[in-house]
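Quick one:
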Amino acid sequence: MKALLRLGLLVAALAIPAGVALAGAQSDTIAIFRHAGESRAFFSNCYGYAIFPTIGKGGLGVGGAYGTGRVYAHDTAIGHVSMAQVSVGLQAGGEAYSEIIFFQDKLALDRFTGGNFEFSGDVGAIAITAAASASAGTTGENSGASADKHMAATQGQYTNGMAVFTVAKGGLMYNATIAGQKFSFDPYPANRVAVQ
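Output:
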């Protein structure tokens, strides 16, 4: 019970900065990924993408992560997305990072936006602005690393129609956890155009 209470407080604390200057954060984060290493090429051949300017992650034994962002189809914002993650295992500290998920085709985008989508089975090691990680989940097995915030770490090529890149923003966290990122999509009304 205490662990759940700690987790709830952690997730609430991580959610505080989520609403600050989302429009500017979106365009700035997209620009970083457009100019970073391998992620640059995905913009020219993807059907769409989900962008998370900041995901906050922290834990001590029990951990959590939370972030919000937007989903784009052909560079047009089509909805809001949130990501929540709960993890149990050897972990300590906190970090912040940006994440982008590229969708190879309409089928991949529809799977992501069709309901509550989940990546499962994450193992990672993160230190300040360098990152190395590996995962096995609904998108297959992947791994990657990033040297700094201007070099995106690839989570592999398209696997099951999706490719994931992260850029470490800061913090210090050691983890070896079993966790899953869960995504919730809320489409914009057909007549609403998001500020990009």
